[in-house]
């Protein structure tokens, strides 16, 4: 356990000091399950600094995103209250290493998910609302380079996220209507990446299934009120020279974040 604590400490300090560390190369010595053990210790460090868990995020649910990073397994991480930025809020770039931004879809979990049960409750019973979202990822590794095991240990590069207005599932919004919605990522008013919610595992509803599967396997909980970030609908783009970023999803609306170079 000692070496796992040491890995977690390196990653937690890198995030707190906004300073990259060399790749841990965990794939040489450790499996996925052990990498999730390191991740849980990294998240525990945030909780000890006063944050609380807000949900679960998925990574590499989009093949274009997986190809961008060279990692092709779907992975999960924890999101916490200190990562949440209000819609229209500001992120201090000085607190980040080499941030990238990606447009996502967020789900609001309506009830405690019983992950000891062998099957999932249906998506429409588990999830009550959906929102456009932005994720700012910030790998703690030099040059944003990692193996599968390394990125799992680094809490899947999770750094900040913004959730736009929630839309409840009702007659006009359903698991079918969210299956193929246009997504744009606008950087300083320019459309910089376009995609579809269909890029997320073919249908973002599958991100809910993946979240349950990974939670069961690697010891996450998904209580009522959790946010599920379904994964990027496009590749991630560098944020360092951007002042305002927005995601727009057809029929769902938008979410916006501003950046500042002043320390907070
Ligand atoms: C890992 C996180 C991937 C996504 O939405 O695919 C992710 C990374 O690319 O650094 O959050
Ligand atoms: Mg993401």
Helix and strand arrangement:
Layout: H1 2-17, H2 32-48, E1 53-59, H3 63-69, E2 75-80, E3 84-85, E4 89-92, E5 100-109, H4 123-126, E6 127-137, H5 148-153, E7 158-163, E8 167-168, E9 182-187, E10 190-196, H6 205-218, E11 227-232, E12 237-238, E13 244-249, E14 253-260
Parallel strand pairs: 1-11, 3-7, 4-14
Antiparallel strand pairs: 1-2, 5-6, 5-11, 5-12, 6-7, 6-8, 9-10, 9-13, 13-14
Helix pairs in contact: 1-2
The structure holds 2-oxoadipic acid (OOG) and magnesium ion.
Distinctive features:
264 residues, alpha+beta, nine-stranded mixed beta sheet, five-stranded mixed beta sheet, 6 helices, binds 2-oxoadipic acid, binds magnesium ion
Describe the protein.
- The chain has helices at residues 2-17, 32-48, 63-69, 123-126, 148-153, 205-218, and strands at residues 53-59, 75-80, 84-85, 89-92, 100-109, 127-137, 158-163, 167-168, 182-187, 190-196, 227-232, 237-238, 244-249, 253-260.
- The N and C termini lie far apart (35 Å).
- With 264 residues, it is α+β, with helices and mostly antiparallel strands.
- Helix 1 (2-17) crosses helix 2.
- 46% of the residues are buried.
- It is 24% helix and 31% strand.
- Strands 1, 2, 3, 5, 6, 7, 8, 11 and 12 form a nine-stranded mixed beta sheet that branches. Strands 4-14-13-9-10 form a five-stranded mixed beta sheet, with no helix packed on it.
- The structure holds 2-oxoadipic acid and magnesium ion (MG).
- 2-oxoadipic acid (OOG) binds at residues 59-60, 65, 69, 102, 135, 137, 139, 151, 156-157, 231-232.
């Amino acid at each position: 356990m000692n070496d796992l604590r040491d890995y977690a400490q390196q990653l937690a300090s890198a995030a707190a000091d906004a300073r990259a560390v060399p790749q841990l190369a965990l794939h040489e010595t450790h499996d996925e399950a052990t990498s999730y053990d390191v991740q849980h210790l990294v998240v525990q460090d945030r909780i000890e600094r006063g944050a609380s868990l807000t949900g679960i995020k998925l990574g590499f649910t989009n093949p274009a995103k997986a190809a961008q990073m060279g990692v092709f397994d779907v992975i999960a991480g924890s999101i916490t209250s200190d990562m949440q930025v209000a819609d229209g809020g500001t992120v201090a770039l000085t607190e980040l290493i080499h941030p990238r931004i990606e447009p996502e879809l967020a789900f609001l979990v309506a009830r405690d998910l019983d992950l000891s049960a062998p099957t999932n409750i249906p998506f429409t019973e588990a999830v009550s609302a959906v929102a456009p979202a932005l994720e700012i990822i910030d790998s703690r590794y030099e040059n944003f380079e990692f193996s599968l095991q390394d990125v799992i240990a680094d809490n899947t590069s999770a750094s900040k996220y913004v959730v736009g207005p929630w839309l409840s599932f009702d007659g006009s919004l359903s698991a079918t209507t969210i299956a193929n919605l246009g997504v744009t990522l606008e950087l300083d008013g320019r459309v910089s990446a376009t995609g579809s919610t269909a890029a997320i595992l073919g249908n973002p509803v599958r991100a809910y299934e993946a979240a349950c599967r990974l939670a069961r396997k690697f010891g996450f909980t998904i209580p009522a009120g959790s946010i599920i970030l379904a994964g990027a609908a496009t590749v991630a783009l560098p944020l360092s020279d951007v002042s305002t970023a927005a995601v727009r999803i057809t029929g769902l609306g938008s979410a916006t974040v501003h950046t500042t170079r002043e320390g907070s």
